[in-house]
Amino acid sequence: MADMVSIFMSIGLNEQKAKETLKNEALSSTLKKAIEQARGLLGSASIDKTAATMLYNMVTRLKDPTRLSFLTEYIITRKINSELQLSAALDFIKSHPQENLDRLEFEAACGVGVVVTPEQIEDAVELIIRKHKDQLLAERYRFNMGILMGEARTALKWADGKIVKNEVDMQVLHLLGPKTEADLEKKSNLEPKPFLHKICLLFVGEANTEGKSLMEQLRGEALKFHKPGENYKTEGYVVTPNTMNLLKKHLEETGGQVRTRFPPEPNGILHIGHAKAINFNFGYAKANNGICFLRYDDTNPEKEEEKYFTAIKEMVEWLGYKPYAVTHASDQFQLLYDLAVDLIRRGHAYVCHQRGEELKGHNIPPSPWRERPVEESLLLFDRMRKGMFAEGEVTLRMKMVMEDGKMDPVAYRIKYTPHHRTGDTWCIYPTYDYTHCLCDSIENITHSLCTKEFQARRSSYFWLCNALDLYCPVQWEYGRLNLTYTVVSKRKIIKLVETGIVRDWDDPRLFTLTALRRRGFPPQAINNFCARVGVTVAQTTMEPHLLEACVREVLNDTAPRAMAILEPLKVTITNLCPNKVLIPDFPANEAKGSHVVPFSKTIFIEQSDFREVMEKGYKRLTPDQPVGLRHAGYVISVQRVIKDGCGKVCELEVTCASSDSVEKPKAFIHWVSDPLRCEVRLYESLFLHKNPEDPAEVPAGFLSDINPNSLTVIGSALVDRSVGKAKVFDKFQFERVGYFSLDPDSTSEKLVFNRTVTLKEDPGKI
């Protein structure tokens, strides 16, 4: 083993990567052969870094070992020396399975010997710029530059991508000149905007994704996904003698339509990470005129409840997506069982008596029952089905090694728990590793999109479909979306609920989708956030304020204005006849509507908007400084300060004058008159540290990191009567205070508002 590690390290692998490679016996053997062949071609010379990298990438993706020496020769002789050429070479080999390859045809397909000169790049880009010149001049820098890059890369297939991009940028600059102030103006707030840092998309190459909607990111060739029916062209896809027939039948059944699925387990509430998965699965199908299934992976009856089934569908629809069909893994229990019997008959599965604790971890010794006779496994599996073993006593295991080195994953286990949908019909249930790919195959899924941690299961996905000679979809992985200052683990949220730290799964301090809805986050804002994050291959960890920025952008254009006072101070106007004031719902666009509020002798302002002693820089109301009242057209001046028995200011007597008749005040404040009493809940981060689950940051565990100020309840706030008929989840901007949403706890006697997010404005300017 030490010798093999040394050989792998000689081509640039670090020790850990070399040892991981050794876990995959087939890969290790092929890589060793490739290195030996390369050394034979080079003689005393060593393998350079570029060739070594290409060699390793080739071996990990090559599915036909008979072509190993052929490709090794091209890599070592530097005829294939780029990732683009290697991909083309592997594609050519997949689509030309015949024994004798036409070398000239192969070299033409891979760009062998092709040299693209700077002059050719300049000429090709010039033609493309000329083609789009009118639109470029009209739209200037709002033009989608990705179109230029896409056409340039098509015309200059074997050119260096960076050189091509530099040439495109230079010629655009030459045509349009530097960006002007008009070019830099912001687009509509409802359009997704890029964060200050750029997040690169998976599979997108060098296309510019800044400011693109999710649909633009997912449409057509924006992602380097295969076309339906061209599964065999993707890296790692295993081609069998029957593959092309199965793909032909698949296309006949689907008509070449894109098919995806969102497959949650119904044992918890969806969270912000699921929002990315929903947007990606449903969005990719929608962007490409396809369909997406909502499929419940209901294979563990111990943890599934009706409330989770209902809440999951509700949240998918809340985000704006309608499933083509709602299906369940349990719909296929009989077919899955029949396929398991077939798998045993084919010699690819066996009944095993090893206990669960013996199967945990890595380097598990092979099962002593691995070579059990087929007839014996069939008999024992039938006895499992009939309930003749105890839980944990036996399992059905598949004869295969996964990419992470795990050997013979479990396909079926015994659980004597009634199933939510099938009751006591079954006492054996299939695992994820067995069920997922087969349900994808049964539903004719074209693109099985899943998070990165399932990459280690890709080989088992392909293996199982091929072992049963079924249509095999393609699995594509993307990075998870995580947020700081929160936890999303089901187990940990249950702990928070059980300990009384949060009320339930929809507590607005959590980042479950039900909690975000209750707090007042618009679904459009969540979708915009997912679009900004993009479809990244690496795990993405974002800060909550970036999500909140998306929320503000949507609410600024959609939440009507109202006025509310959180800490009231009574003000009596001594020289006013009561009247009414017309207040625009959206001051920046008064055409969108307005509402009327009373304006009587008694109004209420925020305690913080009055100071008895003038301080430097303070612009609001003092005994010596008047202040304006928003929307009312009046300026008030203090005549008398009234205090309670403890010396605290409890009321002001003021006079008012028309704002047209006096000097303009330094500030305008909000107010309410004849208001409704309401409860307001203010939320802050639930945790004190960015990563509450990290022992390095929080040694005592996440429950010790709770922010004691994460919830503030104000029971005697006041709000103007324009919100009196609001419905649950209706949203408002309380001027100068923040964005708020009506909570389900509201009654006809008392409204309850949750603060969704604070205002964007700098408090010092208010």
From TrEMBL:
Keywords: Acetylation, Aminoacyl-tRNA synthetase, ATP-binding, Cytoplasm, Ligase, Nucleotide-binding, Phosphoprotein, Protein biosynthesis. Residues 559-656 form the Glutamyl/glutaminyl-tRNA synthetase class Ib anti-codon binding domain. GO terms for biological process: glutaminyl-tRNA aminoacylation. GO terms for molecular function: ATP binding; glutamine-tRNA ligase activity. Its EC number is 6.1.1.18. It comes from the Eukaryota. PANTHER family: GLUTAMINE--TRNA LIGASE, GLUTAMINE-TRNA LIGASE. This is Glutamine--tRNA ligase. It comes from Cyprinus carpio. The lineage of its organism: Eukaryota, Metazoa, Chordata, Craniata, Vertebrata.
